[in-house]
Amino acid sequence: MSDSSRPQRPAYWLAGFLASAGLTHFLRPKQYDALVPEELPGSRRAWTYASGAAELGVAAAIALPRTRRLGGLAAALLFVGVLPGNVKMALDFERKKLAAPVRAAAWFRLTAQWPLVKWALKVRDNA
User: What phi and psi, each to the nearest 5 degrees, are found at residue 75?
Assistant: First the structure.
């Protein structure tokens, strides 16, 4: 890989991460349905599929050099947008007194949001 393509490696990794996450919304939607706040209108499954489609679309935008800058910004906004669902999951797991490793994973997922936002903004800035 040439030196000029090396700064784009994080973009390809982020696109792959988002594409994988987006696909799981369609392959295992039940786990995502539980993250959708009850206050949102419509069915939880519709929100699960919509967020999966959004992740796939953002992944495609990041993968294409022409739309990478916009895709990086969209990824950052997406990571901020799913924050309420991650908060809900962590609190639900605590309330249900699930196993400690499961609760710890939920809290880790919540704390991972800020590094994901920073990663997406770095991709945008390097586009």
Answer: -65, -45
